[in-house]
Every structure is written in C-alpha cells, then in structure tokens.
Fold:
Amino acid sequence: MPRVTRDVIVIGGSGGALEALRSLLPKLPADLPAAILLVLHLGRVSHLSSTLGRCSALPVFDAESGARFERGQIHVAVPGMHFLLHDHDILLRRGPRENLSRPSIDALFRSAAASLGSRVIGVLLSGSLSDGSVGLRAIERCGGVNVVQDPEDALVPSMPRSALRHARVDHVRPVAAMPALLAQLTCEPAGPSPEVPPDIRLEAAIAAQELADMKVDDALGKVSPFTCPECHGALWEIRDGSVLRFRCHVGHAFTADAVLAMQGDEIDRMLGSLQRAHAERAELARQMATQERARERHNLADHLESRAREYEDDARLMMGLIRNGFGTADRNDKTRKAGGDSEGEGNGPTPPDPVS
Structure:
C-alpha cells in the first residue's frame, strides 16, 4: 500500500495575506507533493488566480464545482461561493455566510478536516479579527497539522494572534520560512485519522446547504439572548474550546468578536442617522422661524429658533459620539474585509488588497 502523506494544504487569510502569498508561492517547489486550496477574505477581488499564477511555481486555477484537485495544483476560491471539499472533489455552494464571508476560511478548513482528516495541513496568514481559528480547531480535532504566520511578521496580526489563543498551533513561522516547512510536512506520513466529531460534520453540512434548521442549532448549542446581525433571528451559542461563537437558524455564523464589531457598526449607522435627522430638524425650524418673523409673529419665531438651537446641540452631541468612536468596539487591528456584490458579499469597510 502506498504511504499516505499530508498532501492537502488549505490556506486562509485576509488583510495582508495577498502580500504574504506573493512571497510564499514563488518559493514552493514545483514538484510539491500536495494540492493547495486557498481562500482569501478580500471581497470581490477579480483575477486573483491569474495574479497569483504570475508569481507561482505551481499552476493556479479558479475553483470549479465538481472538479478533482490534484497534487501540484493550487485552487483559489471564487467570490460569492463557499469553497468546500468532499473527498477529492471540489464543491462550490452558496451556503450561509460565516463572519459575513462567503467564501469562508473556516468553512474550507472544516470541510477539508471532515473529508481528509490527518492528511490536511492548515495554514493561516495575516488578517483581521478571529477568522480561521475555528477552522484550525477543526483540523486539529481531525488529526491534521496547523501552521500560523508569526504575528510579528503579519501586516494585520489579529487572525494569527487569535489562532494562537484558541487553537493548537503546531508551527509558527514568518512567511519566509514557510516554503521549507511546508515541503517538509508534505513528505511526512499522515498517520491515522480520528473519527470526525459530529459537530464538525453538522457545520460542514450547513455550509454545503445540506441542512440548517432549529433542531440542528439545538444540537450545536443553546439559545442566546442575542440576535443575528444579518437576519435578526435568534442566535445559538456554541462553545468550541475557548472560542465563543454563534449560529442562527438560517445558518449565519459568527465569532463573538465579529458580533461585537458588527454591533458597533450598527450603532455607528444609528448615530449617523440621528445626527442627520437633528441637523435637518434644526434647519427646518430656522426656516420656519424666518417665515414667522416675516409675518411679525415674533414670539413664535423666537420659540422656533430656540428649538433649532436645541436640535443643533443634539446634532453636535451625535457627531461627538461618532468622532469618539462611541459605537465602535476596539478598532485595533480590526481591518474589516472589503467589497461585496449586491447581496453584501465581502466583509466590511476596509478596501481590498490591490490586485492588478
């Protein structure tokens, strides 16, 4: 029987990951005995496969549903679809988003772990918030190996730091040291794969649109007092090791820090609406006062001008709250992912990495 090695590398990243890949891919051996499957949370970045192909020693393809991946190839997720694996086949599915992302790093990592177990090498690069930590935990629990970019080497270190807090990380390396490490790991025997935990199978099936309902959510966790930032339905609380995260009955999934950030964004939008409304009321009251004074109704004009000043004070208060980040969670390293189609693909207000 041929020896089974670690022959599937799944890579995820967001802000700063494109620069890391431009350094990593040219240094991988052209005969690498593994397939590479890649998700970047960069919104609707176009021509990513051709951009990476120009700097890669391995051929780079857009992921295609139903295609089989082979050793020595790189397959890149396409916008708007989860990039999933089923045995040696690629599945593209428009399942519920995770942390406002589709494709999702966690969805790819989880499906690879469920399908291929100890053969999987998970690689997490630069990025914001905690995306990828849940997927690395799935790879760990299914017998795979995890590699994380050294946070000191990452342009946006939040994702690597989160992984170090919440997952078992076997190797922490700067990007410059990753090619040699990956070449070594792909030559190692994979070893036996443990039985896939039921919760990993369930969540992989949700991303693949195979099931999602309240009974499934009850199997994953308990009902929380919070509502889904996307559909405003109830959220179920899931305890995944030290990671606190949530899913709704539609299937939208979030880590706790993603929910906190989205709540802050919602407060910012509400404060902006209030500021605009108060400013408009002040202007309208002043116009009414001018009209009443022209009619020599001075008492009414004085009252309207007093109200206009009150509205202006309220508008300034709202603007002060916005400028001071009243609605914003800790913004350090919270570089949200970018872009999106008409349904909101992508992940927030930060511009995407430029792709030529």
